[in-house]
Each structure stands twice: as C-alpha cells, then as structure tokens.
Amino acid sequence: MPAKHPAACKKLLIIGATGLIGKYITLALVQSKSKFDRIAILTSADTVQNKVQEIEDLKKEGVDIIVGDVTNFKDVVDAYRDIDTVISAVGRNVIEHQVELIRLANDSDTVHRFFPSEYGTDIEYSPASANEKPHQKKLIVRAAMKSCDNLDYTYVVTGPYADLCLGPMMGQLGSFDVIKKEAVLLDDGNLKTSYTTMRDVGNLVTLAALHPEVSRNKALKVNSFTATDMEILQEFEEQTGNKWKISYTSMGQLKKIEQEAWSNGAPMATGATLRRIWAEGGTLYEKRDNDLIEAENVVDTLEDAVAEAIKQQTKSMM
To answer: Residue 101 burial by CB count (10 A; 0-12/13-18/19+): exposed, middle or buried?
Structure first.
C-alpha cells in the first residue's frame, strides 16, 4: 500500500491529451483550471506540428506544453518535475507502456497520484474478467500500479462510450444509424448496459481529481446512464419522429462473430469481446460511485446522448 497520505491533486500532467478520450479529459480540466495550480501536457513534436490550432488553444488557456517522447526516460522525468498528479489517456495500442510511466512516477519526488488509462470496461468485474483477451494489458498496468510504495492511484471506470455505441460504426455488433433509420439490437433488445458520454468521461476524471480523498486507491465505477437497446431505439424514434427498421444479433451470433474475429486476427475482435461482456452485464453494479465525487446530478442523460448522436450523424449532411 502506498505510504503517502491523501494529498490534493493541484499540479496535473496529462499524457495523451489530444487523443480520442484525452481531448475530452483535457477540455474538462481546463474548464476547471481555476481549481488547479498547474495544468500541463506531455506531447510529441509530431502532435505540435500536426495539431497546431489545438495546441495554440491550449496555450491560450494557460496550459503548459511540454514537448517530449513518452518512451524516453529523460523526457518523462523532466515532465514530472513540479507535477503531483499524472493523468494518462494513452490509447489501447500503447497501454502497456504505462508500466514504465508508473515506475518513474513512483520514483518521482513530487508525483503522488496516477490515473491510468482505464476509461472503459471494468477489467476486474468478476473472476472471469482475468481471462478476457482485451483486459490483459490493463491488468498488467494495474499490477504495476498496486506494487508501488510511493504512489496512489485512481481508476476511473466508465463503461463503454455512448458516443461510439449510439452510432452506426459497430454494425452487427449493435448500432444506431440516424441517416438510414436502422438499428441492430443485441439479443431481444432488453439487455441493460451502462454508458458514459465522452464529455462526461472528462468531467468525471476532473471531479475525481477534485475529490482526492474519496478517489484514493479506488476503482470508481461511474457512468452517465443505464439503458437497454430498446430504450435507446425508442428515444431515437421519438427525437427523429420516425419509426426505424430493426434487426437483431443474438448472443449466439455475437459469440460466433467474436470467435471468428479472434481466429482470423480481425481488428474487430476486441470490440466483439467487449460487446459480449457488456451484453452479459459487465457494466452493471449494485451502486455506482457518482455520488462519491459529487457527480450524481451533473452527468448526461439518455436523452442528451441521443440528441448528440443525431447531431453528429447529421452534421455531414448540412
């Protein structure tokens, strides 16, 4: 167990700040910048060159831009100076590299809290979770985190991103296509799943940092809302004013898709496994932890998430 007592998270370093979920986390932290002493990001030279406007916008907000390589020992050590909290939002493809980032944070004179890139499925939901292929790298990271003697952690476990699941991209794995007015529902459409909008992921991470005592060495199970596919479909139909065409993917079909994807080395394999985990109830808890960080009444609703999905899917038609 880490030796340090709970301490305020005031000087933050974000790694992966301009990525898929990192940009939402960074935005939420910046919106609460008055409550922190310092916000910095560690980013690559390529990002600075390729995302000029995004970097300039962050500078205008007072964010310190530290240019370096997260795989370079010296760059990371330098970035950790005058930082007490590291918030990682690295992508799944480099999840395991956090082991070294954690080791260096544990050795740091100033860093006392580390938020690993967890935002998603609970990788320790049940004993069976240890055997799920998509969880293996995150489990290694958690083991490294728990072995530290000088570093606290917070795992922000959000479940699947509503922004992605309430769209057409997952096809037969479950999807909602606003343009075609078509939906693919899992099983009979009545399986419950808890979702978090990516905007809320940012807000929930920020609130966890602002409540260091209750989030210390804890996996926070937080989310925006819980709904069945049928409830989501009904909300889409109400907001679009149309009846949609519905098809179904049975659990048997889903498991077959999953097995074939892993056998063939298909990119969709991870998504198929995660879909099956969610369908089996892997996002459901007796009680969520939103109240611990004062997030119970500030998260998006199903109605909010569907409205945003409609907005995003119809944007390209305007």
So the answer is: buried
